[in-house]
User: Fold these one by one.
Assistant:
Number 1:
Amino acid sequence: MSQNNENVKVWDLPTRIFHWSLALSFLGAYFTSEGRELRPIHVMFGITVLGLIIFRVIWGFAGTRHARFASFVKGPQQVKSYLQSLLAKTPEHHAGHNPAGALAILGLIGLGLLVPCLGLLKFNHIGPHWLGDVHAVIANIMFGIVCVHLAGVVVSSYLHRENLVRAMFSGFKKGARSEGISGTRRAIGILVLLAVLGFWVGYGWTHPAVLQVFSTSVQTSDND
Ligand code: HEM
Ligand code: HEM
């Protein structure tokens, strides 16, 4: 058995909590974006996206090996050679993010900062009237990148014969022992999770409209 086939820890807990909270919050914000009644929930999820991305930028410098930008941000040459290896069905092995996936990830992190900031400006009536349209257009571009991201995850999982979604839950991927990380930074991961949950509880508490939207949708589904 080659030494690249061991199960090694690559994603620390903060990265995994960040990812699934981000996916939930982004989709939550996206699918509650239309109509004034859902706006409180939209804003709550949108601000969560912003907070998570700020954490991820810090973690990109302070996190464990594969979470660091320096480990996965690669030049165009490496992206090209990775894509060529995919086409030749002999995919290059990367213990962390592959160079092509990393491009989508950088796009999502960049737009994940921009979209909520534009939303906050619009919400607080700062700036020109068309800012809301710019916010919506860029949010839709971000949704497009999420779709590319999901397609990339499916294709890479198939070509690498490795379930990357499961790896984002467990933290383990196939690789050489030397590629693994030593600790999972559990305490920081739990803090990130508590910060997200605490924000939602606090927001719902101080904005009763959020709870009203939820109770109305529960009543509506009860009456169905
Ligand atoms: C709900 C369906 C989703 C699934 C199944 C999924 C799956 C994954 C997987 C498997 C990875 C790791 C890729 C690798 O091994 O290189 C990943 C990374 C990532 N995904 Fe997703 N994703 C989803 C939704 C999203 C959404 C909605 C966003 C953003 C708006 C997002 C942003 C990211 C980011 C930023 C990373 C990099 C993680 C990090 O290093 O912190 N994902 N995703
Ligand atoms: C990643 C997070 C976010 C996404 C994906 C997102 C997405 C969207 C989209 C697609 C629309 C257009 C809805 C339509 O077609 O009517 C919209 C509208 C809006 N969003 Fe967001 N948004 C996010 C974050 C935020 C935040 C943080 C705020 C405020 C604090 C915000 C405030 C608004 C407002 C006020 C509008 C209405 C704009 C207008 O009337 O022109 N959004 N958002």
Note: The longest strand covers residues 6-9.
Number 2:
Amino acid sequence: MAARPAFARHDLLTWPLVGPFLRWRFSRRFLQAVLLAVSALILFDGFLGPQQSPKNLATVTVWIHYRGLVVLALLLVGNLFCMACPFMLPREAARWLGRRLGLQRNVPRPLRSKWPAVILLALFFYLFELYDLWASPWLTAWVIATYFLTALVIDLFFRGAAFCKYVCPLGQFNFMAALASPGEIRVREAAVCTTCRTKDCIAGNRQTGQRGCELWLFQPGKVGNMDCTFCLDCVYACPHDNIGLLARLPTQELWSDPRRAGIGRLGRRLDVTALLVVLIFGAYLNAFGMIKPVYALEQWLAARLHTTAEAPVLLLIFGVGLGVVPPLLLATAGWLSRLASGRRESVRETAQYFILSLVPLGFGMWLAHYAFHFLTGALTLIPVTQSFLNDIGLPAGEPLWQLGPIVPADWLFPLQAFFLYLGTFGSLVAAFQLAVSRYRTRQVALRAFLPWAALTLVMLVAALWIMFQPMEMRGTIFLGL
Ligand code: SF4
Ligand code: SF4
């Protein structure tokens, strides 16, 4: 690697300690190995440990800590989970084997889209509620094991980072949320790239054997965080040390919709729009699934459908929540926006363009929801770990089951509301900037922006209403909060 770059406050890769660590070529492997070891413990306890969810490492760490820490990292830096993803470590062996056996192929063109991930995400949200995954250590362990297996099989047969780019639901969540993050892997000086002959960031560095970006994100044309796993392969490959982890204004990449290397324009891709719909409106459904009114709604629907089974009732709720309400809301805002701008374009085009503005609010909703679980259950890790160690014969004392919350109960709603206001502010700014970058005059832009501002505020009210309801204390034993 080239000489250490000069310290720059806005570039994390130049910071003391953290910079040299991340620039060390094996830092990612190290982080992955740590999380792989943690995953092994989680799997062990999930399959063989106590099957009460608040007392098992699998349910507590996955549904409280993992989710809470992921959204925190996305809020403060960017896609750090993909950087340390444990699923990627065993797949290196599968890729090697696939190459040796001549099994590896390019992903067929019709499958090079977000549609597989869209289907898997919608299915996961549905199954999460149907089987109460948060309440079952055994099922949680199966979800993780299936994840490992799927990543292995896909990378055995397909070249590149097929699993990350087209399949992984967790990765798509991170890509979506990272659109609003304050950090981005990007070139330090564009002028250096124009004189660069080898383009190792994409082609790979022949001298060091470092591969280039497997997600097809060519640095000089890369815009923002979509599809970027923060793997740093491009950083290690670039012979000019011209790539950093740079700070930017949060949500900034949502202020326009330029052509992005390896992706195209987000607003022109129906699969990306579907992905954003599932992730933005899925945030509402996921939180709605744990408040009291959902039970009343389920009973009412069950009576109308003359059934006692939960599956068809939930299917109807998810079908309407993801397949009917979002298109209606987006089409209405798109139609009004087009009318206000007087521009000749289809409603679909307008809606696909402006849906980008709803990303910050969608992320704010996930943040508010996951923060609730994290803030009320973060310290449960201590007694659960004590209990786990005791179970495997390593005395760790009487588990301190009284531990759980890290903030007083009356801070919860104000904090959740703060995250929602933050998301709303980000969405309003993004919608206005998108309008300004699309229409010729500010007056037209303002008129086109108003329906999206109205939709954002309606969604804020819905989010506040959901968060205001008493929530199920999933994965904790502190029912008195
Ligand atoms: S990022 Fe590095 S390898 Fe890629 S084009 Fe620029 S200078 Fe060349
Ligand atoms: S641009 Fe590509 S190689 Fe660079 S960090 Fe992102 S995914 Fe990895």
Note: Residues 185, 213, 215, 217, 222, 228-234 surround iron/sulfur cluster (ligand 2) (CB under 6 Å).
